[in-house]
User: Which sequence fits this backbone?
Protein backbone atom coordinates (compact mmCIF):
# COMPACT_ATOMS: atom_id res chain seq x y z
CA UNK A 1 0.00 0.00 0.00
CA UNK A 2 1.31 3.40 -0.92
CA UNK A 3 2.09 5.86 1.78
CA UNK A 4 0.76 9.36 1.56
CA UNK A 5 3.00 12.05 2.96
CA UNK A 6 0.88 14.97 4.12
CA UNK A 7 2.46 18.36 4.03
CA UNK A 8 -0.37 19.62 6.18
CA UNK A 9 -0.69 22.27 8.88
CA UNK A 10 -3.77 22.24 11.11
CA UNK A 11 -6.18 25.15 10.56
CA UNK A 12 -6.34 27.88 13.21
CA UNK A 13 -8.33 27.08 16.38
CA UNK A 14 -10.87 29.77 15.52
CA UNK A 15 -12.24 27.67 12.67
CA UNK A 16 -14.95 25.77 14.42
CA UNK A 17 -17.18 24.51 11.61
CA UNK A 18 -16.31 21.17 10.00
CA UNK A 19 -17.08 22.58 6.54
CA UNK A 20 -14.31 25.15 6.86
CA UNK A 21 -11.94 22.52 8.22
CA UNK A 22 -12.75 20.24 5.28
CA UNK A 23 -12.00 22.99 2.77
CA UNK A 24 -8.76 23.76 4.58
CA UNK A 25 -7.72 20.13 4.38
CA UNK A 26 -8.04 20.08 0.61
CA UNK A 27 -6.37 23.44 0.17
CA UNK A 28 -3.42 22.46 2.38
CA UNK A 29 -2.73 19.06 0.77
CA UNK A 30 -1.56 19.71 -2.79
CA UNK A 31 0.79 16.69 -2.76
CA UNK A 32 -1.96 14.11 -2.19
CA UNK A 33 -1.70 11.53 -4.92
CA UNK A 34 -4.51 11.23 -7.41
CA UNK A 35 -5.46 7.70 -6.23
CA UNK A 36 -6.29 8.90 -2.67
CA UNK A 37 -7.79 12.34 -3.36
CA UNK A 38 -11.07 11.00 -4.89
CA UNK A 39 -11.69 8.86 -1.79
CA UNK A 40 -11.24 11.86 0.52
CA UNK A 41 -13.47 13.97 -1.68
CA UNK A 42 -16.21 11.31 -1.73
CA UNK A 43 -16.06 10.94 2.04
CA UNK A 44 -16.45 14.67 2.58
CA UNK A 45 -19.29 14.81 0.08
CA UNK A 46 -21.15 12.01 1.89
CA UNK A 47 -20.64 13.81 5.18
CA UNK A 48 -21.97 17.06 3.70
CA UNK A 49 -25.00 15.32 2.14
CA UNK A 50 -25.80 13.64 5.46
CA UNK A 51 -25.61 16.96 7.25
CA UNK A 52 -28.03 18.53 4.78
CA UNK A 53 -30.46 15.62 5.18
CA UNK A 54 -30.40 15.95 8.97
CA UNK A 55 -30.87 19.71 8.71
CA UNK A 56 -33.88 19.32 6.45
CA UNK A 57 -35.41 16.66 8.71
CA UNK A 58 -35.02 18.93 11.75
CA UNK A 59 -36.73 21.75 9.87
CA UNK A 60 -39.71 19.58 9.02
CA UNK A 61 -40.03 18.23 12.55
CA UNK A 62 -39.60 21.61 14.24
CA UNK A 63 -40.54 24.56 12.00
CA UNK A 64 -39.89 27.09 14.78
CA UNK A 65 -36.16 26.27 14.76
CA UNK A 66 -35.70 26.63 10.96
CA UNK A 67 -32.14 27.62 10.05
CA UNK A 68 -31.02 29.79 7.17
CA UNK A 69 -30.76 27.06 4.55
CA UNK A 70 -31.18 29.45 1.66
CA UNK A 71 -28.23 31.59 2.74
CA UNK A 72 -25.86 28.71 3.52
CA UNK A 73 -22.85 28.57 1.25
CA UNK A 74 -21.03 25.39 0.37
CA UNK A 75 -17.26 25.28 0.78
CA UNK A 76 -15.56 26.64 -2.31
CA UNK A 77 -13.96 23.24 -2.97
CA UNK A 78 -17.37 21.73 -3.77
CA UNK A 79 -18.92 24.53 -5.80
CA UNK A 80 -17.45 23.39 -9.08
CA UNK A 81 -17.94 19.65 -8.41
CA UNK A 82 -21.49 19.25 -7.11
CA UNK A 83 -23.12 22.59 -7.87
CA UNK A 84 -26.05 21.04 -9.75
CA UNK A 85 -26.78 18.50 -7.02
CA UNK A 86 -26.50 21.13 -4.31
CA UNK A 87 -28.77 23.59 -6.16
CA UNK A 88 -31.38 20.89 -6.69
CA UNK A 89 -31.39 20.10 -2.96
CA UNK A 90 -31.85 23.78 -2.13
CA UNK A 91 -34.71 24.07 -4.63
CA UNK A 92 -36.40 21.00 -3.18
CA UNK A 93 -36.13 22.46 0.31
CA UNK A 94 -37.62 25.78 -0.82
CA UNK A 95 -40.47 24.16 -2.73
CA UNK A 96 -41.46 21.86 0.13
CA UNK A 97 -44.59 23.34 1.80
CA UNK A 98 -44.17 24.41 5.40
CA UNK A 99 -46.14 22.10 7.70
CA UNK A 100 -49.02 23.77 9.60
CA UNK A 101 -48.36 25.08 13.07
CA UNK A 102 -49.19 22.58 15.79
CA UNK A 103 -51.62 23.35 18.58
CA UNK A 104 -50.50 21.44 21.63
CA UNK A 105 -52.32 21.20 24.92
CA UNK A 106 -50.54 23.51 27.45
CA UNK A 107 -50.21 20.70 29.97
CA UNK A 108 -48.52 18.40 27.40
CA UNK A 109 -46.27 21.19 26.18
CA UNK A 110 -45.26 22.05 29.73
CA UNK A 111 -44.48 18.39 30.41
CA UNK A 112 -42.11 18.05 27.46
CA UNK A 113 -40.43 21.33 28.35
CA UNK A 114 -39.70 20.02 31.81
CA UNK A 115 -42.23 22.25 33.58
CA UNK A 116 -45.07 21.07 35.76
CA UNK A 117 -48.59 20.96 34.32
CA UNK A 118 -50.99 23.81 35.28
CA UNK A 119 -52.36 23.09 38.76
CA UNK A 120 -56.06 22.96 39.47
CA UNK A 121 -57.56 25.89 41.32
CA UNK A 122 -57.33 25.49 45.08
CA UNK A 123 -60.68 24.86 46.78
CA UNK A 124 -61.89 27.18 49.50
CA UNK A 125 -62.08 26.34 53.17
CA UNK A 126 -65.50 27.82 53.99
CA UNK A 127 -68.77 27.39 52.05
CA UNK A 128 -71.63 29.81 52.75
CA UNK A 129 -75.00 28.41 51.66
CA UNK A 130 -78.27 30.34 51.46
CA UNK A 131 -81.49 28.56 52.42
CA UNK A 132 -84.61 29.68 50.50
CA UNK A 133 -84.16 29.03 46.80
CA UNK A 134 -80.73 27.44 47.27
CA UNK A 135 -80.51 24.64 49.82
CA UNK A 136 -84.32 24.53 49.98
CA UNK A 137 -86.35 23.66 46.89
CA UNK A 138 -89.75 24.99 45.81
CA UNK A 139 -91.34 22.93 48.59
CA UNK A 140 -89.17 24.76 51.18
CA UNK A 141 -87.34 21.54 52.04
CA UNK A 142 -83.77 20.40 51.31
CA UNK A 143 -83.69 17.78 48.57
CA UNK A 144 -81.72 14.53 49.06
CA UNK A 145 -79.41 15.62 46.22
CA UNK A 146 -78.57 18.88 47.99
CA UNK A 147 -77.99 17.18 51.33
CA UNK A 148 -75.63 14.67 49.71
CA UNK A 149 -73.78 17.47 47.88
CA UNK A 150 -73.23 19.39 51.13
CA UNK A 151 -71.78 16.20 52.61
CA UNK A 152 -69.35 16.01 49.66
CA UNK A 153 -68.17 19.51 50.48
CA UNK A 154 -67.49 18.49 54.06
CA UNK A 155 -65.67 15.35 52.94
CA UNK A 156 -63.24 17.61 51.07
CA UNK A 157 -62.46 19.41 54.32
CA UNK A 158 -64.65 22.48 53.63
CA UNK A 159 -66.53 24.00 56.58
CA UNK A 160 -70.20 24.69 55.81
CA UNK A 161 -72.03 27.71 57.22
CA UNK A 162 -75.67 28.66 56.70
CA UNK A 163 -76.13 32.27 55.53
CA UNK A 164 -79.80 33.23 55.50
CA UNK A 165 -82.23 36.05 56.09
CA UNK A 166 -84.13 33.78 58.46
CA UNK A 167 -84.03 34.08 62.21
CA UNK A 168 -81.91 31.65 64.21
CA UNK A 169 -85.06 29.80 65.32
CA UNK A 170 -86.01 29.13 61.68
CA UNK A 171 -82.49 28.09 60.63
CA UNK A 172 -81.76 25.56 63.36
CA UNK A 173 -84.41 22.94 62.37
CA UNK A 174 -83.03 22.88 58.80
CA UNK A 175 -79.35 22.93 59.73
CA UNK A 176 -79.80 19.89 61.96
CA UNK A 177 -80.67 17.86 58.84
CA UNK A 178 -77.06 18.38 57.72
CA UNK A 179 -73.97 16.95 59.37
CA UNK A 180 -71.67 19.17 61.42
CA UNK A 181 -72.94 22.64 60.51
CA UNK A 182 -71.70 24.66 63.46
CA UNK A 183 -72.06 28.29 62.34
CA UNK A 184 -75.04 30.39 61.22
CA UNK A 185 -75.17 33.85 59.66
CA UNK A 186 -78.73 34.83 60.59
CA UNK A 187 -81.12 37.69 59.80
CA UNK A 188 -79.17 38.82 56.69
CA UNK A 189 -75.99 39.03 58.78
CA UNK A 190 -77.35 40.86 61.81
CA UNK A 191 -76.40 37.85 63.98
CA UNK A 192 -73.37 35.57 63.55
CA UNK A 193 -73.50 32.73 66.01
CA UNK A 194 -72.47 29.19 66.79
CA UNK A 195 -75.15 26.53 66.49
CA UNK A 196 -75.34 26.30 70.28
CA UNK A 197 -75.89 30.08 70.40
CA UNK A 198 -73.51 30.35 73.33
CA UNK A 199 -70.74 31.80 71.16
CA UNK A 200 -72.11 34.89 69.39
CA UNK A 201 -69.64 36.78 67.21
CA UNK A 202 -71.91 39.58 65.98
CA UNK A 203 -75.24 41.24 66.72
CA UNK A 204 -76.41 44.43 65.04
CA UNK A 205 -79.67 46.16 65.93
CA UNK A 206 -81.84 48.87 64.46
CA UNK A 207 -82.28 52.08 66.40
CA UNK A 208 -85.60 52.64 68.12
CA UNK A 209 -86.33 55.61 65.86
CA UNK A 210 -85.77 53.50 62.72
CA UNK A 211 -88.05 50.77 64.06
CA UNK A 212 -90.84 53.28 64.79
CA UNK A 213 -90.40 54.83 61.32
CA UNK A 214 -90.54 51.44 59.59
CA UNK A 215 -93.65 50.34 61.47
CA UNK A 216 -95.41 53.65 60.78
CA UNK A 217 -94.52 53.48 57.09
CA UNK A 218 -95.88 49.92 56.90
CA UNK A 219 -99.19 51.06 58.44
CA UNK A 220 -99.36 53.95 55.97
CA UNK A 221 -98.86 51.58 53.02
CA UNK A 222 -101.45 49.14 54.34
CA UNK A 223 -98.91 46.33 54.86
CA UNK A 224 -98.50 43.85 57.71
CA UNK A 225 -95.33 44.34 59.74
CA UNK A 226 -93.29 41.64 61.42
CA UNK A 227 -90.20 42.26 63.52
CA UNK A 228 -87.21 40.01 64.11
CA UNK A 229 -85.90 40.40 67.64
CA UNK A 230 -83.29 38.43 69.54
CA UNK A 231 -85.87 35.96 70.84
CA UNK A 232 -87.67 35.34 67.53
CA UNK A 233 -90.19 36.94 65.13
CA UNK A 234 -93.03 39.02 66.60
CA UNK A 235 -95.95 41.08 65.31
CA UNK A 236 -98.84 43.15 66.64
CA UNK A 237 -101.11 42.19 63.72
CA UNK A 238 -104.02 39.76 64.20
CA UNK A 239 -104.02 36.40 62.44
CA UNK A 240 -104.68 36.66 58.70
CA UNK A 241 -103.81 34.82 55.46
CA UNK A 242 -100.69 36.95 54.85
CA UNK A 243 -99.26 36.00 58.25
CA UNK A 244 -100.03 32.36 57.49
CA UNK A 245 -98.14 32.76 54.18
CA UNK A 246 -95.07 34.02 56.05
CA UNK A 247 -95.28 31.28 58.67
CA UNK A 248 -95.47 28.64 55.94
CA UNK A 249 -92.36 29.99 54.21
CA UNK A 250 -90.45 30.63 57.43
CA UNK A 251 -91.37 27.31 59.00
CA UNK A 252 -91.94 29.11 62.29
CA UNK A 253 -94.95 31.10 63.53
CA UNK A 254 -94.62 34.71 64.65
CA UNK A 255 -95.51 35.64 68.23
CA UNK A 256 -98.18 38.29 68.77
CA UNK A 257 -97.29 41.01 71.28
CA UNK A 258 -98.32 44.69 71.66
CA UNK A 259 -96.41 47.30 69.69
CA UNK A 260 -95.17 48.99 72.84
CA UNK A 261 -93.37 45.78 73.80
CA UNK A 262 -91.95 45.46 70.30
CA UNK A 263 -90.36 48.90 70.60
CA UNK A 264 -88.75 47.86 73.89
CA UNK A 265 -86.99 44.92 72.23
CA UNK A 266 -83.68 44.84 70.40
CA UNK A 267 -84.68 44.58 66.76
CA UNK A 268 -82.66 43.01 63.92
CA UNK A 269 -84.97 43.99 61.06
CA UNK A 270 -88.58 44.82 60.08
CA UNK A 271 -90.48 42.81 57.46
CA UNK A 272 -93.49 43.97 55.43
CA UNK A 273 -95.91 41.34 54.13
CA UNK A 274 -98.34 42.05 51.29
CA UNK A 275 -99.56 41.10 47.85
CA UNK A 276 -96.60 40.11 45.63
CA UNK A 277 -97.34 42.69 42.91
CA UNK A 278 -97.58 45.49 45.41
CA UNK A 279 -94.44 44.42 47.26
CA UNK A 280 -92.50 44.27 43.98
CA UNK A 281 -93.22 47.95 43.28
CA UNK A 282 -92.13 49.29 46.65
CA UNK A 283 -88.48 49.79 45.71
CA UNK A 284 -89.45 52.47 43.20
CA UNK A 285 -91.38 54.66 45.69
CA UNK A 286 -89.64 57.83 46.79
CA UNK A 287 -90.81 57.24 50.35
CA UNK A 288 -88.85 53.99 50.42
CA UNK A 289 -85.69 55.17 48.69
CA UNK A 290 -85.43 58.10 51.11
CA UNK A 291 -85.54 55.92 54.23
CA UNK A 292 -82.33 56.03 56.34
CA UNK A 293 -81.99 52.24 56.20
CA UNK A 294 -81.45 49.39 53.78
CA UNK A 295 -84.51 48.14 51.86
CA UNK A 296 -84.57 44.71 50.18
CA UNK A 297 -87.17 42.72 48.25
CA UNK A 298 -86.20 39.25 49.45
CA UNK A 299 -89.06 36.81 48.87
CA UNK A 300 -92.26 36.93 46.87
CA UNK A 301 -94.56 39.11 48.95
CA UNK A 302 -91.88 40.05 51.52
CA UNK A 303 -89.96 43.33 51.84
CA UNK A 304 -87.29 43.89 54.51
CA UNK A 305 -85.75 46.93 56.24
CA UNK A 306 -82.51 46.85 58.25
CA UNK A 307 -79.35 48.90 58.93
CA UNK A 308 -77.04 49.54 55.95
CA UNK A 309 -74.21 47.71 57.72
CA UNK A 310 -76.19 44.47 57.92
CA UNK A 311 -75.25 42.18 55.01
CA UNK A 312 -74.33 38.55 54.61
CA UNK A 313 -70.93 39.70 53.40
CA UNK A 314 -70.21 41.55 56.66
CA UNK A 315 -71.42 38.60 58.70
CA UNK A 316 -69.24 36.16 56.76
CA UNK A 317 -66.27 38.50 57.05
CA UNK A 318 -66.67 38.48 60.82
CA UNK A 319 -66.86 34.68 60.89
CA UNK A 320 -63.91 34.26 58.50
CA UNK A 321 -61.76 36.49 60.70
CA UNK A 322 -62.71 34.39 63.72
CA UNK A 323 -61.70 31.22 61.85
CA UNK A 324 -58.45 32.74 60.57
CA UNK A 325 -59.63 32.84 56.94
CA UNK A 326 -59.95 35.47 54.23
CA UNK A 327 -62.42 36.23 51.47
CA UNK A 328 -60.40 34.13 49.01
CA UNK A 329 -61.03 31.07 51.21
CA UNK A 330 -64.82 31.39 50.90
CA UNK A 331 -67.25 30.13 48.27
CA UNK A 332 -70.84 31.40 48.39
CA UNK A 333 -74.03 29.82 47.04
CA UNK A 334 -77.28 31.80 46.76
CA UNK A 335 -80.09 33.02 44.52
CA UNK A 336 -81.46 36.38 45.70
CA UNK A 337 -80.64 40.06 45.82
CA UNK A 338 -79.72 39.70 49.48
CA UNK A 339 -76.86 37.44 48.33
CA UNK A 340 -75.26 40.02 46.01
CA UNK A 341 -72.95 41.50 48.65
CA UNK A 342 -71.87 37.97 49.62
CA UNK A 343 -71.20 37.10 45.96
CA UNK A 344 -69.00 40.14 45.46
CA UNK A 345 -67.05 39.60 48.69
CA UNK A 346 -66.33 35.86 48.45
CA UNK A 347 -63.46 34.47 46.42
CA UNK A 348 -65.86 32.22 44.49
CA UNK A 349 -69.63 32.46 44.12
CA UNK A 350 -72.42 30.51 42.44
CA UNK A 351 -75.91 31.82 41.74
CA UNK A 352 -78.69 29.33 41.18
CA UNK A 353 -79.77 29.42 37.52
CA UNK A 354 -83.36 30.22 38.56
CA UNK A 355 -82.34 33.13 40.81
CA UNK A 356 -82.96 36.86 40.59
CA UNK A 357 -81.41 38.49 37.46
CA UNK A 358 -79.37 40.89 39.59
CA UNK A 359 -77.99 37.96 41.57
CA UNK A 360 -77.07 36.12 38.37
CA UNK A 361 -75.20 39.20 37.17
CA UNK A 362 -73.29 39.60 40.44
CA UNK A 363 -72.18 35.97 40.89
CA UNK A 364 -68.93 34.78 39.38
CA UNK A 365 -70.54 31.52 38.16
CA UNK A 366 -74.04 30.14 37.62
CA UNK A 367 -75.24 26.65 38.46
CA UNK A 368 -76.02 24.28 35.58
CA UNK A 369 -79.68 24.28 34.58
CA UNK A 370 -82.06 21.54 35.65
CA UNK A 371 -84.63 21.03 38.37
CA UNK A 372 -84.52 23.92 40.89
CA UNK A 373 -84.64 21.51 43.82
CA UNK A 374 -81.18 20.13 42.96
CA UNK A 375 -79.54 23.27 41.55
CA UNK A 376 -77.29 23.56 44.60
CA UNK A 377 -76.04 20.00 44.14
CA UNK A 378 -75.04 20.72 40.54
CA UNK A 379 -73.31 23.93 41.57
CA UNK A 380 -71.35 22.13 44.31
CA UNK A 381 -70.30 19.35 41.94
CA UNK A 382 -69.17 21.94 39.41
CA UNK A 383 -67.11 23.67 42.10
CA UNK A 384 -65.50 20.47 43.36
CA UNK A 385 -64.63 19.39 39.82
CA UNK A 386 -62.52 22.47 39.05
Assistant:
Amino acid sequence: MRKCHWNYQPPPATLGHHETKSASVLAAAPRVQRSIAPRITARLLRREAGRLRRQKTNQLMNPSSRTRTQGTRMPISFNFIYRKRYNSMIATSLLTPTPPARTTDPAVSAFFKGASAPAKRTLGKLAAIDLDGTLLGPDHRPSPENIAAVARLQQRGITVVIASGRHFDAIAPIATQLDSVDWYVCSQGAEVTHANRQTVLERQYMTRDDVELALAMGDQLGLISLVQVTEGTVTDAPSNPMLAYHDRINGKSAYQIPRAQILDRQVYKVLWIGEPDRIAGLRHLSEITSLPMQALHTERGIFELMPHTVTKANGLSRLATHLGLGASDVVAFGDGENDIAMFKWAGASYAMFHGHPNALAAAKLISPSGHPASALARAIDSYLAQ
User: Anything to note?
Assistant: The longest strand covers residues 267-273. Residues 320 and 326 are 6 Å apart (CA to CA). Confidence is low (pLDDT under 50) at residues 13-33, 67-82, 90-96, 108-118.
